[in-house]
Design brief:
Pfam families: TetR_C_13, TetR_N. By secondary structure, the protein is mostly helical. The chain has a domain of 136 residues: Tetracycline Repressor, domain 2 (Orthogonal Bundle). The protein is elongated and about 60 Å long.
Length: 199
């Protein structure tokens, strides 16, 4: 007879995402997960495995539900630099206000944490970085086609810089940086690529 789960694994995993996102994996014990989800250890282990498997599932869910849709919109946007400016404005708003203010980005937090040495975690982080950089590159290629970039601007190199800037926004916001200061930095970076078109 199959085991019947008396809880929603999807809802439980979303709770775990928020827990690891806010606290980090190193600061989160399995008892924290039990308390947050209301589930007992045996149910957690039977459904997700141990803490590391649970963290990986949460990290993958974060990327799939929070990162990829934003990257897709950016890559498919046909406005060029204004689309990139909008991406950063949304990022700063999400990191500095609302329910998740001060949490940073779960992926950026993982890059900065000790858990990034795990090969499976590293693979998730590397793939996320590629997708972020590729979305930036797609928007910059569109910007170049529309004459928005300064002469000599290399979209591939600029995409690398903007991806790193996104990580910087995430980490600085977690440390309490002011949204206006972050916005000024982003504005200066985009202005160096294309002047007024970046506004």
């Amino acid at each position: 007879m199959p085991d019947i789960k008396h809880f929603d694994p999807d809802a439980a995993l979303e709770t775990v995402v928020r827990l690891f996102w806010r606290q980090g994996v190193a600061s989160t014990g399995i008892q924290d997960v039990v308390t947050a989800t209301g589930l007992n250890r045996s149910s957690l282990y039977a459904t997700f495995g141990g803490k590391q498997e649970l963290y990986l599932a949460a990290l993958r869910r974060y990327v799939e539900q929070r990162s990829r849709p934003v990257f897709r919109r950016l890559a498919e946007d046909e406005r060029g630099l204004p689309a990139i400016a909008e991406f950063f404005a949304g990022l700063i708003d999400a990191r500095c206000s609302g329910e998740y203010a001060g949490w940073g980005c779960m992926v950026s937090n993982a890059h900065a944490g000790a858990d990034n040495s795990d090969p499976e975690v590293r693979a998730v982080l590397d793939r996320h970085h590629e997708e972020l950089r590729d979305a930036m590159h797609a928007a910059l290629v569109t910007a170049r086609a529309q004459g928005q970039l300064v002469p000599g601007c290399d979209p591939r190199a600029a995409a690398d810089v903007l991806a790193l800037l996104a990580y910087g926004v995430n980490l600085r916001s977690r440390a309490g940086a002011d949204a206006r200061d972050l916005s000024r930095t982003v504005t200066a970076a985009l202005a160096s690529l294309g002047g007024p078109a970046a506004a």
